[in-house]
Design goal:
Length: 497
């Protein structure tokens, strides 16, 4: 009997009554690990009702008490790191080292959530008029929801529910149906950490579950991370229903390489960022812009890419694991074929690799195209596979113009030893997250993830200070206290302060 993935409702792990179920498969072997329900709207309703019922008491719980739950959660995540990473590798495919990184980057958000005492502080101005003070308090919204993608099944749920709950909200999480087992372990650890029943609830499913979240009148805010198409739908539908929505979307990230860069370091960074996690990162570098003499680095990039070892994620020494599923594999192979048809030069072809012991795995090896033009599909689309496009330009100014002409604005990186070039780049580049000799510049949680343009809808980012604003409503209070003796008998007829 294959295990079923449970729902978490009102503190209990319960079996779904869904009529439709999907299989969760190990992408390296196709072994069925579990069955996950496609929850109907009625089950979303149950989860929201539990979250709504838990809200008044949780909202009234002291900041210190809320914060302590997350102190315990961070300790439990550390304690269970290997189990989390191993489950993640089996259901998602990435290497164990990457899986640990996935958990760790989420753990950092849990650590940050513990400082909610200072993060959620309001503001106070004394004497805005004679004897009158104004202060602002940040209050939780109520029931919030999170919809997460398959590529970071630990980090992205941890971007959401710890910050939402620590600020006093209750939460309904809808993880990706492709790898729901890791988020369920996190949910279980959160219960063990002392999160009261109903504060965190978990449902599963696809379009029906997501639409029910977008439509539910008791959900006040939705955090979404995933593709442009689905995110745009969620943003629109959720907003139309009066909710706050933040949506972190797809990307096409460029690395810009100046000839004065430290070549060895820069090319190592490039192949890691282009092919690591099989290119299934929203911050993967999928385009390398080679400037001036750096055009001559193509052969070295290809040579480095060839050294990467393709294998199942749990095998020691693996650099690149499989893609998430058969459709993703077929799509990536099709896009590579289209790149060839459209005239790009295939410098390295990763299609149909032989991976000993894993003939059923969804593998594509590192693939590199040179001579890529903006009109080609391999450039226009987010491939979300280990495919790198090389583009050549003469100057830094041309490189900046090229990057800025792309609609996406998630991340970019410049490789150089010139401070002046770096200063020009960081100032002129129209991308939300910039690395200077750092290939994947995802900020630590004291900042926020700050993708921009077509990579994001909504103004506030996930985690960090921005998400405290997202998950809270600012209320301002303007107060005057009368000194009974001083004002006895006085009548104030003015309305304005
Ligand atoms: P996806 O959009 O297919 O799925 C995201 C969520 O939406 C999942 O929970 C899924 O169940 C749900 N969903 C899928 N189809 C739906 C539909 N038709 N209607 C309603 N809901 C639906 O994304 P994915 O393939 O899981 O993840 C990869 C994408 O996520 C890439 O585009 C990647 O760039 C993006 N991503 C972005 C960030 C970021 O921070 N910007 C981070 C990680 C991933």
């Amino acid at each position: 009997m294959t295990a079923t993935v449970k729902l978490l409702i009102a503190g209990k792990f319960v079996e779904s009554a869904a009529s439709e179920w999907r299989e969760v498969r190990n992408p390296a072997t196709q072994e069925v690990l579990a069955r996950v329900p496609m929850c109907p709207a009625a089950e979303i309703d149950q989860a929201v009702a539990a979250a709504k019922a838990a809200f008044p008491a949780w909202r009234a719980t002291s900041i210190a008490e809320r914060s302590r739950v997350f102190m315990r959660l961070q300790a439990l995540i550390r304690e269970h790191m290997e189990m989390l990473a191993s489950t993640l590798t089996h259901e998602q495919g990435k290497t164990l080292a990457d899986a640990r990184g996935d958990v760790f980057r989420g753990l950092e958000v849990v650590e940050h959530a513990c400082s909610v005492g200072s993060l959620q502080m309001g503001e106070f101005a004394e004497n805005v008029a004679g004897g009158v003070d104004t202060y602002a308090i940040r209050q939780p919204l109520g029931v919030c929801a999170g919809i997460t993608p398959f590529n970071f099944p630990a980090m992205i749920p941890l971007w959401m529910f710890p910050m939402a709950c620590v600020t006093g909200n209750t939460f309904v999480l809808k993880p990706s149906e492709q790898d729901p087992m890791t988020p369920m372990i996190l949910a279980e650890l959160a219960q063990r950490a002392g999160l009261p029943p109903g504060v965190l609830n978990v449902v599963h499913g696809g379009a029906e579950a997501v639409n029910a979240i977008c439509d539910h009148p008791d959900i006040k805010a939705i955090s979404f991370v995933g593709s442009v198409g689905v995110g745009t739908h969620v943003y629109r539908r959720g907003s139309e229903n009066g909710k706050r929505v933040q949506a972190m979307l797809g990307a096409k990230n460029h690395g810009v390489f100046l000839p004065d860069a430290n070549k060895e370091q820069s090319l190592n960074a490039l192949v890691g960022a282009a092919f690591g996690a099989a290119g299934q990162r929203c911050m993967a570098i999928s385009v390398a812009v080679l400037v001036g003499q750096a055009r001559e680095w193509t052969a070295d990039i290809v040579a480095k890419a060839k050294t990467l070892k393709l294998n199942a994620g749990h095998e020691p020494g693996t650099d690149i694991g499989p893609l998430i599923n058969g459709q993703a594999l077929a799509r990536v192979e099709q896009l590579i074929g289209q790149g060839v048809e459209e005239g790009a030069k295939l410098e390295l072809d990763g299609r149909k690799p032989q991976v000993a012991g894993y003939p059923q795995g969804n593998f594509v090896g590192p693939t590199i195209f040179s001579g890529v033009k903006p009109a080609m599909h391999i450039y226009r689309e987010e491939v979300f596979g280990p495919v790198l496009c090389l583009v050549e330009v003469d100057t830094l100014a041309e490189a900046i113009a090229f990057v800025n002409a792309n609609p996406y604005g998630n991340g970019t990186a410049l490789f150089t030893q010139s401070g002046a070039a770096a200063r020009t780049f960081q100032h002129d580049i129209d991308v939300g997250q910039v690395g200077i000799n750092v290939p994947i510049p995802v900020p630590v949680p004291f900042f926020s993830f700050t993708g921009s343009r077509a990579s994001k809808l909504g103004d506030l980012g996930p985690y960090g200070k921005e998400v405290v604003r997202f998950y809270t409503q600012t209320k301002t209070v303007t107060a005057r206290w009368f000194d009974d003796e001083a004002v006895a008998g006085a009548v104030n007829t003015t309305i304005a302060l």
